[in-house]
Amino acid sequence: MTDVLILCEHDRGNLEPATLEALTFARSIDGADLSVLVCGELADDAIASLGEYGATTVHVAEHDLLSDFGPETWGQTLVAAIDEIDPDLVLACGTSKGNEVLAQAAARLDLPFVANVTELDDSFDEMTRVQWGGSLLERSGLEADLPIVSLAHHAVEPASVDGGAPSVETFEPDLDDSLARTVVNGRDIAEAGVTLSTAPVVVGGGRAVGNADAFAPLEELAELLGGRVGCSRAVTNNGWRPHSDQVGQTGTRIAPELYIANGISGAIQHWVGAMASKQILAINTDPEANMVTKAGWAVIGDLHEVIPAITEEVKKRRG
Ligand SMILES: Cc1cc2nc3c(=O)[nH]c(=O)nc-3n(C[C@H](O)[C@H](O)[C@H](O)COP(=O)(O)OP(=O)(O)OC[C@H]3O[C@@H](n4cnc5c(N)ncnc54)[C@H](O)[C@@H]3O)c2cc1C
Fold first, then answer.
1. What is the reported pTM?
2. Residue 85 exposed, middle or buried by CB count within 10 Å (0-12, 13-18, 19+)
């Protein structure tokens, strides 16, 4: 049996889907028995979900300093769990939170940490990982008493199994105030409802949109389809949209059911943020544009004509 310890990502008790990606990936490991570490409180239905995705045991760490996220408190808690459980592999999803906590734990244990892996061989001493924002796949060797590895975010689609309720064990890690230098103590949520990274549809606009006001038709289409507007860096550089709307290497990685990319050339730095989209419709005047050649569907034409036409057609069909 291979004991895999998975870090649960949650936000004040709300389970992050990234954890389910890590569980789904871990199930593909031969003979894996999956336990999950939860730092702080997690809702009962979220614990049940961990079982539905294959966790057999959930270790809940209880401590006043775990009432909100702190990379050092979570890192030290992971070290305590590793001491107790003695796993064969430690895994998290490679979100910024997952990578930060694994790096904290690895540094404390003086062990290496491999980030953003997509494939692991059976003995965990060779792996494939993504680099350069996803544009390079790299084969790496690993020599470590305990492999500490993060899974590339969005590399795996979460899939449930018929798992039963996991057993829950609580423990109190030994944490002191010196670890609480960066504990989150407040937050301003900039957006309500569907976010760019979770939107089922993203309507993206590039330089060719032309100006900030010209995004109105994209907003209308996105709203009609229950999605969000995204954009390229050319757009944020021009100050037409906030950076939180930017898709790409230095923006958000998206994975919608449908990405409608309007007047976006598909430069590699944009593509790495968009390539996890299930389907892509490119609207572009250039049939040779990267985004067009990579998309499943394309309309070769002026976005200022094509978007209103799509919007009108959607409205007409919906009556
Ligand atoms: C370190 C680094 C990080 C970067 N990170 C990012 C990132 O995170 N995200 C990102 O997007 N970029 C990023 N970039 C910038 C990236 O290299 C490109 O410059 C940028 O993505 C181009 O934006 P664009 O596609 O909107 O513009 P352009 O490349 O200028 O493309 C405009 C497209 O619109 C088409 N077009 C023109 N008129 C019309 C029309 N009327 N209707 C329809 N189509 C039309 C053109 O054929 C063209 O394909 C980064 C660059 C660097 C160096």
1. 0.68
2. middle
